[in-house]
Design a protein that fits this description.
The protein is of the alpha/beta class. The protein has 2 domains: about 200 residues, 2-enoyl-CoA Hydratase, Chain A, domain 1, CATH 3.90.226.10; about 55 residues, no CATH class. The protein is built from 12 helices and 10 strands. A 7-stranded mixed sheet has the order 1-2-3-4-5-7-10, with helices on both faces. Helix 6 crosses helix 7 and helix 10 packs antiparallel against helix 11. The longest helix has 18 residues.
Length: about 260
Amino acid sequence: MGQDRAVSELLYSVSAGVCTVTLNRPEVRNALSSSLIASLRQAMAAAEQDPEVSVVVLTGSDPAFCAGLDLKELGSGGRNLGAADTVRSPWPELSKLVIGAVNGAAVTGGLELALNCDFLVASDRAKFGDTHARVGIMPGWGLSVLLPRRVGLARAIEMSMTGNFMGADEALSSGLVNHVVAHESLMPFTLALAADAVGNDVDSATNLLASYRRIAAAGGGAEGLRLEAEAARRWQERGFDPSEVERRRAAILERGRRQ
């Protein structure tokens, strides 16, 4: 039985190893107030500490994923900008896989939320844009690092300097998202991918994901190969149970027959 907890601006549920976190200010396109930023960080920290959670799915209440910082609050003291600038990431460091289910517009700070996910699934209604330069603020959650990593430097600069939006199909062809699906299929499709990930050996999956993240931060290349070799050596030094490997091999073969 999943656990459900709801506050006015964020929904949080856990079921079968998957934690779904939903930004829930649909009347303002899930714009980021200082209180929503705090709630999101608390939710992600709770998911990290929950031994029942293996995967986090982040989405928004329709019609948008997230429109970025709440401009009304930003223009009346900027408490949300201060909240956003306290750390370089929108949530605490996580060891668990984070999948973004982008159901609509992901703009500026909302685009940064999406980029901080490990990978993205997009509704055919999704669109992506960076309007930092139009609003008159600077990114602080990694956009200028993470966006070029996904779409290439020239395309990232074009998005930021023009403020133009990228539709779902272009996001797929550019590598920003992994999949585009019909809007009504977004959550079932994403939760099915999350369930596939839950079926992994938790310890090895956690270490492999951490290795991917370290290598990406190092820029890949020769340093990435060194980090992978170091991670493999540490894993082998821990030892493993051959009988457990054999049990999993049989399960993998059976899964392969079904796919």
